[in-house]
Every structure is written in C-alpha cells, then in structure tokens.
Amino acid sequence: MSTVTITAQDINKLRQATGAGMMDCRKALTETNGDFEAAIDWLRKQGQKVAAKRSDREAKEGVVVAQTTADNKTGIIVCVSCETDFVSKNEDFVAFVKSIADAAIANNVSSVEELNEATVGGTRIAELVNDKLASIGEKIGITKFEKVSAPYVASYIHGAYRIGVLVALDKDAPEAGKDVAMQVAALSPVAVDAASVPADVVAREKSVIIDIMKEDPKMAGKPEEMLAKIAEGKLGAFFKEQTLTAQAFVKDGGKSVGDYLKESGVNVLEFKRVALG
Fold it and tell me: What is the mean pLDDT of the chain?
C-alpha cells in the first residue's frame, strides 16, 4: 500500500497531462507510490488493456439529440453511442449528451473533430467522453454529427432519443417543419425528391430490378436494352416509396407530402436523419 499522500493537486496534474478520469488518476498515483512518470505509464498500460478489450465491441445503443439555434436558422444532430440500453436510458447519460449538443450549438461546430475540441465547463469534450468511458466502463463516443442551415430548420427527436431529424425549409413554417420531420423519422426517405436521389442509389436500385427480372421465366431471352427500359419504368415505384415529396403523408394518407407542402406554401431544401442501430 502507498505511504505517500496523494493530493488533489497531484491528481489534477496527472489528469491534465493524460486526459484520464480523476478516479483513474488517483488509483494510478496510489499504485505507483506517487511516481508521476510511472503513473503515466500505468495509465497507458490500463488504457491499452481497455482498448484491446473493447475494440471489437459495437456501440449500437446510445442517445441521439437534435436541436436548433434560438433563431431556427441552424440545426445539429449529435449521436453519442454506448454498448447497452441500461446506459442509454440513464438520465445522467442523456443529460451528458444534451450538454454536448448545447456545446455544438454554442460553438457553431461543423464536424465531430471540431466538437471534440469544444469545451463544457472549461474541459474539452474529448476528455469528458474519456472520463465518462472510465466511469461507466462501456465503450462510448461521438459517432455521428450532422448540421443544417436554412431560412428555417425544424428539429425532432423520436423514440426516447433513438432517432433525430432536421428539416430545412425555405421559409419560417414551424407546423410544417414538425410534420415533415415526423414523416422523415417514420418512413426514412432517401432523398427529398426523385431528382435529388444520388446517382449511385438509382444505379443500384436499377441493377436490383434487372436482376429480379432475369430470374423471371417470362423475361427469359429478353435483350438487355429491353430489360433496362423496363427497369427505368419500374423505378417510378421506388421513387414513390423512397422519396419524401412522393410518399403518402403519414397524417393524411389521401395526399402526398408534396401535396401537403404545396398547400402549406413551403419547400423542403434538405433533411438529415440519424438513427441508432
């Protein structure tokens, strides 16, 4: 047992030098009889063991927070992942993620890298994440970050912080923004409309359609050109199901989202959706 008195100043010095949690720093100094350099080595060895133990574990649980600036001109989504729903449902962990989202808004960050360098209460978020990892014993981290700016941005959180959505509109329209954000959360469209579907997504869907047709005995022997033309026609069903404006409006199946937006006099510029799992 160590006979050296470990002071708060010693612990803080080691914490500042290593980014490790306070309890880990205290234990490191105790285990090494107050030897600062040896304590650093002890922490490094412990860190390597933790990394090796958890490197193959996926963090499929977590908390997703979507929020906007006070003027609704910019919105962000932050996902902090963890390993178990026991942690993700913990009020302290939810509050921790909310504090990170607040920092993202306050510092106008644009990436995970920038967010990790932002501070909460004078401490870098990257350090706070490390401290949280040490305290709960699970692999955690900021795994997803999205940002949108527009004349009006609506945010929506669904399913106990499991899905976060941002919708960018061309004008101030809170009700329409909320309705569309709920639509995006529920049906997960791939793009705003057919014209904005990425080319690689269209190509992949067309390839799938052609492969399915080739398995159909009725299509046996049909030339590739004909199959490609038929596939182009079948893409219409894909666009109707997978693009926002063509989807049936969840709050009124008798109209499309496009119809609803036209009635509301507003256009969707883009959207972002982040979901756990």
Answer: 89
